Amino acid sequence: MESNSAALVLLASLALAGCASSPPEEPDNACGIFSEKEKWYSEARKARKKWGLPVAMGLAFVHQESAYESEAKPPRGRLLWVVPWLRSSSAYGYAQATDEAWSDYRRATNSWLAERDDFGDALDFIGWYNDRSHRELGIGKSDAYHLYLAYHEGPTGYRSGRWNNKSHVKTYASKVSRRYDRYRDQLSKCSSQLEKRRGWFG
Fold first, then answer.
1. What pLDDT is attached to residue 21?
2. How far apart are the C-alpha atoms of 86 and 73, rounded to whole Å?
3. Considering the domain boundaries, does residue 162 fall inside one?
4. Second label for 20, Cα 20 to 30 Å away, from 2, 40, 115, 136?
5. Which residues does 116 contact at the CB level (< 8 Å), separation at least 6?
6. Long-range contacts of 73-78 (CB under 8 A, 24+ apart)
């Protein structure tokens, strides 16, 4: 009986581990990402249809924010340079959405069951946020550089232009812009194949 119980516990542990979504093996290759994570392409298309979020844009934001780690969090600070202390923010998940931003998103979209460690929900959040930046700040939906600045600094921070004095934030935005261009070029070469396979996942 004990051996059977141990086996059941082991099987349950393996099943739970299988549910966790690990980062893609080729994070710099959009075609490779969707080849490995086939359902992600359907989720990216949903965000594109709903919010006008380019598929490559969603990937570029997630890469920058979490490197595709579903449970990513900011590192803990150090008290007296030694003792682990508080995290710098409440950011969590693929899109590194803060508690406040995620609450705003859920309320605005009536997405009360959305979770930050779900890839599809994270893309929907990014699409919603960028759509708001487009409407309120006049940023084009393919302008990765300025969309990321608004994403990082928030609407008020973007309007104030305070990011002009933050070289690290502008560096992040440049990285997102370059990755968006790279992903977009890659997808142009495999989009037909992805569309053929899309029927399997809706």
1. 79
2. 11
3. yes
4. 2
5. 92, 93, 94, 95, 97, 102, 122, 125
6. none
The answer as to whether 10 is a domain residue is: no
The first and second tokens of residue 140, run together, are: 């084009």
- Euclidean distance between CA atoms 147 and 150, whole angstroms: 5
Q: Pick from 1-15, 56-70, 82-96 the range whose average pLDDT is largest.
A: 56-70
**Number of independent structural domains in the chain:** 1
Distance between CA atoms of 27 and 59, rounded to whole angstroms? 9
Nearest to 176 by CA among 62, 43, 69, 92: 62
Q: Are 193 and 186 a contacting pair, CB within 8 Å?
A: no
- Indicate whether 13 belongs to any domain: no
Are 129 and 50 a contacting pair, CB within 8 Å?
no
Q: What are phi and psi of 93, to 5 degrees?
A: 85, -175
Domain containing residue 70: 24-197
Residue 66 belongs to a domain: yes
Q: Distance between CA 65 and CA 173 in Å, rounded?
A: 11
pLDDT for residue 75: 57
